[in-house]
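User: Okay, second chain of the day. Same drill as before: sequence in, structure tokens out.
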Amino acid sequence: MNLNKIKLALYALLLTNKFGFKLKNIPMPLDKKRVRFDYAQRLLSKLKIDVKVAYPEKLPKDGQYLLISNHRGVIDPLIVELALKDTNIFGLWISKKELYNSPFFGMFVRNAGSILLDREKSQMSGFFSDIKREVKKGSSIFIFPEGTRNKSDKSLIEFKEGFRIIALKNRLPILPVYIRTHTDEVLGTSLNKKNTHQTVTIEIGDMIDYREKNNIEELYKDMFEI
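Assistant: Same drill. Structure tokens below.
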């Protein structure tokens, strides 16, 4: 591990836990949104990563949605947060148990606004109940429908069916976004090549009705020409 990587890792650890503690005492969703944005901006700035939003005019200013995004790097949630800067959309991230228990991300994930997905549980009723409760309070839901980070050579891996159930049960319009840049490679370059400035492009797609009968994965691929 080179010196630059060690410095950035320590900075990210301290920043993540500092903001995780700060978020613990912030109950209002839009206040949490502003703090999450501040965190994302600070960390990406330290990594010398800029975010470019393609087709920002497709972003609604407010409302509730099921936001779906592809997922190739750990910085993807930060990219989404910056893309939503000029909106009043606040979403809870669907987060795996591993993140909840992580010494690096745990405090931040638990306090920033998330819903725990525990795949080891035989029953998922509690998970869907948690989502319904938060949607009734006015929150959107943010999810990576691939279910995990895509570490393959493909641009996209198969969507899990759970995201459609969330949209249908809660009557949430689906807001698709696509992170065009390979964020795992971008992060690797930031860690290994000091003073390298990079830009990540995230594209905003057309809204999809929650009652859509066609295959949403295929619609997503066509929309973003994947």
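The longest strand covers residues 198-204.

User: Thanks, on to the next one.
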